[in-house]
Design brief:
Blueprint: H1 3-32, H2 37-69
Amino acid sequence: MNKKAVILIIFLLVLPQVTEAQCAMCRAVLESEENTSAAEGINDGIVYLMAIPYVLIATLFYFIYKKMKA
């Protein structure tokens, strides 16, 4: 194995732990606040992050369909 592969494997092993920590921090902040605008903003962000891949895939399939039909 070369040096880049070892660094990549270590990074991928550490990444889920960092992600879980951020998720717990967001939950703690949202539960402690009385203001619901922050929670609504987080929920809107999640919806946008969820929708973007579907839009990109749909666009890709549209262009493939159009090219196959022509």
